[in-house]
């Protein structure tokens, strides 16, 4: 997998975990369910070994209760109203109450994704020769719920039988009673195994496979790659864990069953095989909601050589920087991308086009742009409402450490020369003892500026005020700010760099709102978030570890 793809893989997995937790655990934000007797390993023992992935959601009341220590009063009222509306809609056609009927007996919940079932010809209502190949399969979900109170579960089952509009039909499979529950024309199949686990699915075949597993066929717990990751990720007050024992196999099978997806080319599949398995966890601690993920890699296929970032470059940005991305060794990443492009004709063509366009203005993309970016780097967004930045409210700055100042200076001279041909005025000025070159536009000030902060550190800034903020070393720096420490201070170190977003700045939410359409409710939720921090580490070529913190504001006492 190209390095750029691997960077975004586990954040996406982490996001998926958050979505699952949010959809099933939303009701427990204020009314955390009681602890469950079933654990992830116990649930995995009745999930077929063919499962592509599984998510385990805890029902530990103490873990969910930790969420109650966060959120502004307005946000808590909004969430409470949303949960109330959700509860009314969920049980609108019955007298079922989650609090009274489900909470007392439901333990931990495991959601497993099984290989898609083939779509039968009768379901498509088209002649066999005309069945579209991309509609041959559909998703297959299996849910395992731990039963911690058998009597309460029995009472709930009896109550379901008395509901209006609910049809129940029983059948026997391998000596186990499968119950088909149909409501509003939609059937659900369920079975209780060993009086300790409720297994249910929208497809009867999935429940039958769970029974086969319970009877002795291989399980997800014994699957190669799954047994090692089922111990989960170490997060405090774990809310959910997600397990993917065969990442490439999962993507391949899910892609094959997706109507929109194209068949994966061999090159892509080879890249996917760099990642052997993935495990991720979501937990709550004193800082907020934390997501950790571990990808087990194939060292023979992993071509990218990870290098930790010193983190010193953060100190070059002013304390009011509200967004930052930092890392190390852009030149190495570029070399990997170029190497990978040999297997992807479209990517290779795009690179050649970019090289050709820059060559026409006397700039070598590989040598003049990327070769000297071999040290630490960072991009930051800094608030400003002056000059050319008045209309957007902020500007940006790129800062690079380099061991090849000569090439970097030659590149900047080439860019200045190119700017002159566009009738941009190139001027020199001194800021806090540093020589800065500005691209000036009449009556608007500096469009862009660049200069050297020390012998090895160069910056390029959008907007004159941002150049001043970067060059003036007397102002407090970002790494000393309380906001940056709160959001990134607890993230793992050493690491490969940071993604940092300060949501507590007065300008941040309005800026987000100006670029993304959002309503008053969304803004209320955003105002409850202090910041977002993300980082990654790789102790060796066999492991990649990622961590994200959603730092939340404490609730008012």
Question: What is the element layout, followed by pairings?
Answer:
Layout lengths: L2 H23 L14 H5 L8 E5 L3 H5 L7 H18 L7 H5 L3 E13 L2 H4 L12 E11 L2 H12 L4 E8 L2 E8 L2 E8 L3 E5 L2 H11 L11 H4 L8 E7 L2 H10 L9 H7 L2 E11 L2 E10 L25 E6 L1 H12 L3 H15 L5 H6 L5 E8 L10 E8 L3 H16 L4 E7 L2 E8 L3 E10 L2 E6 L1 H8 L10 H7 L9 E5 L5 H8 L4 H7 L2 E12 L2 E10 L5
Antiparallel strand pairs: 1-2, 1-8, 2-3, 3-7, 4-5, 5-6, 6-7, 8-9, 9-10, 10-20, 11-12, 11-18, 12-13, 13-17, 14-15, 15-16, 16-17, 18-19, 19-20
Instruction: Quickly count the helices.
Output: 19
Shape category: elongated
Strand content: 25-35%
Q: Give the proportion of residues in helices.
A: 25-40%
Quaternary structure state of the chains depicted: single chain
The profile of the biggest β sheet is: 20 strands, antiparallel
Question: How many strands appear in the DSSP assignment?
Answer: 20
Radius of gyration: 28 Å
Query: In terms of structural class, how would the helical and strand content be classed?
Result: alpha+beta
Uncertain segments of ≥5 residues (pLDDT<50)?
A: 1-38, 120-136
Determine the N-to-C terminus distance.
Answer: 48 Å
Chain-averaged pLDDT: 82
């Amino acid at each position: 997998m190209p390095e750029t793809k691997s960077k975004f893989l586990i954040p996406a997995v982490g996001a998926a975990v958050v979505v699952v937790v949010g959809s099933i655990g939303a009701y427990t934000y204020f009314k955390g369910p009681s602890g469950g007797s079933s654990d992830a390993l116990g649930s995995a023992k009745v999930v077929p070994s063919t499962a592509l992935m599984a998510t385990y959601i805890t029902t530990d009341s103490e873990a969910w209760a930790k969420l109650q220590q966060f959120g502004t009063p307005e946000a808590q009222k909004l969430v409470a109203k949303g949960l109330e509306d959700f509860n009314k809609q969920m049980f609108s056609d019955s007298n079922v109450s989650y609090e009274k009927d489900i909470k007392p007996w439901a333990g931990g919940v495991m959601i497993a994704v099984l290989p898609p079932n083939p779509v039968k010809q009768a379901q498509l209502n088209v002649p066999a020769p005309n069945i579209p190949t991309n509609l041959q399969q559909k998703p297959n979900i299996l849910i395992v719920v731990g039963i911690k109170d058998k009597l309460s579960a029995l009472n709930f089952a009896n109550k379901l039988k008395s509901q209006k509009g609910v049809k129940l039909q029983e059948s026997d499979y391998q000596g186990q009673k499968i119950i088909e529950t149909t409501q509003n024309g939609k059937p659900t199949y369920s079975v209780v195994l060993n009086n300790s686990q409720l297994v249910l699915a929208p497809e009867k075949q999935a429940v039958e496979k769970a029974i086969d597993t319970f009877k002795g066929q291989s399980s997800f717990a014994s699957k190669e790659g799954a047994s090692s990751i089922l111990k989960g990720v170490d997060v405090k007050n774990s809310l959910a864990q997600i397990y993917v024992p065969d990442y490439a196999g999962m993507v391949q099978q899910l892609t094959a069953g997706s109507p929109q997806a194209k068949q994966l080319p061999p090159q892509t599949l080879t890249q996917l095989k760099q990642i052997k398995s993935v495990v991720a966890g979501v937990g709550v601690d004193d800082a907020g909601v934390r997501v950790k993920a571990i990808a087990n890699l194939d060292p023979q296929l992993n071509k990218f050589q990870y290098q930790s970032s010193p983190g010193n470059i953060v100190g070059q940005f002013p304390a009011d920087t509200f967004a930052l991305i930092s890392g190390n060794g852009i030149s190495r990443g570029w070399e990997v991308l170029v190497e990978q492009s040999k297997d992807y004709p479209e990517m290779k063509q795009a690179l050649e086009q970019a090289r050709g366009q820059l060559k026409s203005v006397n700039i070598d993309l590989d040598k003049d742009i990327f070769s000297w970016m071999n040290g630490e780097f960072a991009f930051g967004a800094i608030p400003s409402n002056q000059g050319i930045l008045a209309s957007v409210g902020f500007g940006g700055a790129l800062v690079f450490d380099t061991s090849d100042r000569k090439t970097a200076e030659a590149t900047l001279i080439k860019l200045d020369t190119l700017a002159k041909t566009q009738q941009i005025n190139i001027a020199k000025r001194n800021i806090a003892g540093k020589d800065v070159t500005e691209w000036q536009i009449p009556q608007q000030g500096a469009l862009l500026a660049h200069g050297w902060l020390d012998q090895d550190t160069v910056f390029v800034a959008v907007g004159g005020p941002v150049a001043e903020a970067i060059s003036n070393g007397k102002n407090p720096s970002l790494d000393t700010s309380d906001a940056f420490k709160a959001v990134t201070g607890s993230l793992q170190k050493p690491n490969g760099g940071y993604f940092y977003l300060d949501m507590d700045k007065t300008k941040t939410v309005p800026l987000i709102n100006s670029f993304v359409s959002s309503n008053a409710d969304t803004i209320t939720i955003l105002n409850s978030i202090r910041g977002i921090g993300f980082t990654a580490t790789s102790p060796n070529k066999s492991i990649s570890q990622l961590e994200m913190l959603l730092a939340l504001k404490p609730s008012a006492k």
